[in-house]
Design a protein that fits this description.
The longest helix is centred in the N-terminal third of the chain and has 18 residues. The chain is globular and about 55 Å long. With 168 residues, the protein is α+β, with helices and mostly antiparallel strands. Strands 1-2-3-4-5-6 form a six-stranded mixed beta sheet. Helix 1 crosses helix 2. The protein has a single domain, classed as 3-Layer(aba) Sandwich (Aminopeptidase). Helix content is 36%, strand content 25%.
């Protein structure tokens, strides 16, 4: 069942095949933003097609939706929402949770509440699907993404600590 919402002229709607080029551009920007935080990550141009295919596979696997934020005819960002991601470890609770797999707002469109609007729609979808928990992941160094998630009421749950090892 398709539902769309609108915030300050920004329309949140389901992605269509006509959005493919805009989605690929969003993925390139996302990856290049994250690559600036971790240079080991591959460039956006190199992975955009594969990354979009992974989102589509996860959408089919975990009862997902792909949302776009649009102003006039321009796609300014997107979010993937998966509503039935199974807990898969012996120490996890039983059942499943909802996951915002990706949330991207084009660099030129940031600061207009688009990320918050995408998160609100993702939460609405998760609730409608009966999910009791909604998760979202971000690189720890991505301060702007983490601010958006905190402002939307998300709080850290699992923190992964790492130490990069160098060959001797």
């Amino acid at each position: 069942m398709e539902h769309s919402s609108e915030t300050a002229g920004i329309r949140i709607r389901d992605c269509t095949p006509d959005d493919r080029d805009a989605m690929l551009q969003c993925i390139r920007e996302l990856q290049d933003t994250e690559r600036a935080l971790d240079p080991r990550l591959p460039p956006g141009d190199r992975i955009a097609d594969t990354y979009l295919a992974e989102i589509e596979a996860n959408r089919a696997r975990w009862a997902g939706r792909l949302l776009v934020a649009q102003l006039d005819a321009q796609v300014l960002g997107f979010a993937s929402i998966f509503t039935a991601v199974p807990f898969d470890s012996a120490d996890d609770p039983a059942g499943s949770y909802a996951l915002v797999g990706d949330l991207v707002v084009r660099v030129a469109a940031r600061g207009r509440g688009i990320g918050q609007a995408l998160l609100r729609e993702a939460e609405r979808i998760a609730r409608a699907a009966g999910a009791g928990e909604l998760r979202v992941n971000a690189l720890a160094a991505n301060a702007s993404a983490n601010r958006v998630y905190h402002a939307a009421g998300f709080e850290p749950y699992i923190v992964t600590h790492r130490r990069l090892l160098r060959a001797d």
